Every structure is written in structure tokens, then in C-alpha cells.
Amino acid sequence: MELVICNLSVIPVRKEASDKSEMITQLLFGEVAEVLKKDKQWQFIRCLHDDYTGWIDEKQILVISQKFYQKYEEDHHSVSLELTHAVMKDDRGFPILMGSTLPCYDGLTLKIEKDNYIFNGFASDTREIRDRESMVEKICFKYLNSPYLWGGRSPFGIDCSGFTQMVYKAIGIPIKRDAYQQIDHGTNIDFVETSKPGDLAFFVNKEGKVIHVGIVIKNQQIIHASGLVRIDKLDNNGIFNTQTKKYTHQLKLIKRLF
Question: Looking at the structure, do residues 67 and 169 belong to the same domain, yes or no?
């Protein structure tokens, strides 16, 4: 099994083996994937954090050894909580984004194979989180006003399920990539009135297909990526846009994951 790691700020994962193909998701710094097949400069990969598959350019990725991956699996629990912050390598820095994985992080240095990096920003050790309910709202608000981007997973462009996935990553709960996959996580909550901050709310189109997801916050509100990451009212009918005064999404159900 050949494994690769993202050692750049962020790279696109595409539907087809072409720079012109649509971006279906992204890999952030420190995330690992398995190479399933190759086509010239392109590699078809499976993202190990959510099993999502797609094509990446081999020039944007670093092959890692099984020995390093074993250590990575034991120690990769830290996640950057900075919107953007530089990591330093060989006296040169480049930015990484919120939600990036910090492999083998000791609070100041991290390691990818033989390369050492310095990161002195704010990070969470997901093994030590005790109060997920209060933390989830703090993480959500960091993404507020981030522009919507199909396939995006960063504060500079994010889609609805990318947003929920990244918030949950920051509190140490791995979930799948797309809304229709995420709905299989957790337990059902019957009414909006009994939901609590951090619950996931799912929405359907006229055909009943799950097309949208957001995160419940206090006062029967929802934070979600729709045009941008925004806050709207939530009731048992769905999302009520506070600007247009109209319902925009039909509620399917609410799930609790912690």
C-alpha cells in the first residue's frame, strides 16, 4: 500500500484526472491518503480520514513510509485552530489553514518523515477535549462568513458538508464527507426544541434527497454554508433566512453525535 501526505497548505481532489475537472474535496496539510491507482502524473487516492476518493496531482503530494505512518497513526491527534498560521521549515514559512493536521506535534514542533516544522499557533489535542458542546460553537464561529465553495474544506472556501466535517474534526469526531453520508452518523433527535448545540441538522429537496447539512447552535439557530457560512433560524419546517424572510431548506431530521 502506497501512502501519501499533503505537505502543502491545501490541494484539490478532482473528479477526473485533469486540472480542468471539478474539485470534489480537498486535502489539508497533514492529511494522509492511500494511492489506489495511477494515470501518468495523476493518482487516484482514498482519503484515510473519510474514505473519500478522487484524483490528485502527484507533484502536490509526498510519499510516506509505513514506518512513519505507524507513528502518525499514534500521534496525529492535534489540529490547528488558527484561521491561517505559518509553519516554519528550514527558516522558511508557509501558511496552513484551520483544520490542518499536525503530525507528531509536541506543542511547538511537528514532523513529516525527516522534515521538522515549527508551529506556534493555537491547536487542539483532540484526545483531551472535555466540553465538546461549548467548543463546537467556538469553532463554528471561526468559519463565519467564509465563502461557499463546492468541494471546499477551508476558511477561504467551504461547502456545507465540508464545514460540518471540519468542525467535527476539530473536536475529535471523524465523520464522512458528504451530507447524504453524514446523516448515517449519530442518533435521531425528534424535535428542534430538544436539539442542543453541536447537533447536525439535515435537509432535503422536493424528491427527498439529502442535499444540505448544518450545525445547531443556541436559541434555535443553525450555522451553515449557503452562499457563505451564516446563521439563520431553525424550526421544524426547516431553515428560515433572516434576511429574505423565507424558508430556504426543508428539514429532514436532526442527529446527535456526542
Answer: no
**Whole-angstrom Cα Rg for the chain:** 18
Do residues 12 and 23 touch, judged by C-beta distance below 8 A?
yes
Angle 221-241-82 from CA coordinates, rounded to 5°: 55
* CA pair distance 160, 223, nearest whole angstrom: 10
pLDDT grade, residue 224 (50/70/90)? very high
Residues in the chain: 258
The sign of the CA dihedral 182, 184, 187, 188 is positive
How far is CA 192 from each of CA 211, 227, 241, 242, 255, rounded to the nearest angstrom?
19, 23, 16, 17, 10
Do residues 153 and 41 both lie within one domain? no
User: For position 164, which CATH number holds?
Assistant: 3.90.1720.10
Reduced to 3 states (helix: H, G, I; strand: E, B; else coil), residue 192 is helix
Sheet containing 92-97: order of strands? 92-97, 84-89, 115-118, 109-112
Shared domain for 84 and 141, answered yes or no, is no
- DSSP string covering 67-99: HHHHHHHHH--EEE-SSEEEEEETTEEEEEETT
A 10 A CB-CB count for 18 gives: 12
Residue that is last in its domain, among 69, 95, 124? 124
The pLDDT value given to residue 242: 86
40-75, pLDDT tens digit by residue?
A: 999 999 999 999 999 999 999 999 999 999 999 998
The number of folded domains in the chain is 2
Domain residues for 181? Answer: 132-256
- 139 and 120 within one domain: no
Residue 11 belongs to what H/E stretch? strand 10-14
